[in-house]
Amino acid sequence: MTAFHRSALARAGVVALLAAGGLATVAAPAQAADQADLALVPLSYELAKGVTAAKAKPFKFRVDNSRSTVAAKGVSYTADTSQLKRNKVGVVVPDGCQVQGRTFTCQLGDLPAGTSEDFGIPLFSTGGRGDAGTLVVTITSTTTDPERGDNKVEHAITVAKPGYDLTSWVQDVQANVVVNGVQGDDPDLRPVRRGETVPLDWAVYNDGSRKATGIFFGLTLPAGVTFAQKPEGCLEQEFQGKQQLFCEDAGAVVKPGEYYTADVRVTVGDDVTEPVLHEGDLFAYGLDGAEGQPEEEPEMASSAQRKAFTEVDVVDNHTTFEAFVDLTAQPTPTPTATPTGTPTPGATTSPATGGGGAGGGGLPVTGVQAGLIGGIGGLILLAGGALLVLSRRRKVVLVAPSDEKSTD
């Protein structure tokens, strides 16, 4: 998925409007051959009390074009903030969007058939907990759309207690990706040649108001893609023909506005025959409620703290991505293998600003595959226990920006 979410965060000169549900399954009704059939699905539901405008949480939405046979051209979304409660939440308008009163419209670009796109609308806390009103979001396209009533969402927003709030993002597997926390400002993207190895840009952001102590994440590659470089000490396996990693870093501490990542490189197989490889997957959870003793305890939470640190919104901990393949080029000769299992500095921080994304219109991702998610749910139970007894842990480096201030 391309990251219109991070570029939507606060930066100098943007307009702030003080105003201010699981994943939906999209059916596939018959439609005209020249129509795109879009659907809008909300992925985020709650905002932690105490989230500031400078570290606003991008509330995730998905524009789904998976039931279409044609691309949706000129896709845009319009957000109406007039029904949000000003004493509860505020909204940061992404750069490049057109503002009219308490409504703004942002361009997402083209959306190929059979795919979907995630974007984020940044919200922040202005008061106490409770019902924060309704955010009304509508998607449109210059391509004919039958508009079956699923192009508009009236999404109830809730401000929850203070806590950490992990949100996962992954850039699609493409060549010339800029590894920068999935900011979506990659200028020269192209499909990957068969046999080519490229970096994977992925990040787990803490969009809450408290630090997260310890990270557990699972990464699944699309079928036909394999790991060339990966974090040390992860549990590896194959699931439904796809390569998977389950990793634990009990010593990681991710403060609000920071993100966690690690060096990962992937290789597209020589025998791939499809231009788009579907359903890569990333999910992440904090370890504050996990059983067992971590090897590193720089931020060991007390019993009272564990209750306070309970995650605010777990639905957007999960995201999907795809691999785009250039089938016209001859397979790339296999280079000298990069040793796997090499420790790499992992957790990185990011100020709550972004690249040039909101009107970029990059390559999109598909919708969520229910079977894959269901399988992963069961695998978490198996992998979690195994990871807790792994003797080797990846060390991480947390680099705070110069203006970083703790909200704890």
Automatic annotation (TrEMBL):
* Keyword match Transmembrane helix: yes
Residue span of the signal peptide, if any? Answer: 1-32
Q: Where is the composition biased (Low complexity)?
A: 329-352
Q: Does the keyword Magnesium apply?
A: no
The portions of this protein that span the membrane are 370-390
Q: Where is this region: Disordered?
A: 329-360
Q: Which UniProt keywords apply?
A: Membrane, Signal, Transmembrane, Transmembrane helix
Query: This protein is called what?
Result: LPXTG cell wall anchor domain-containing protein
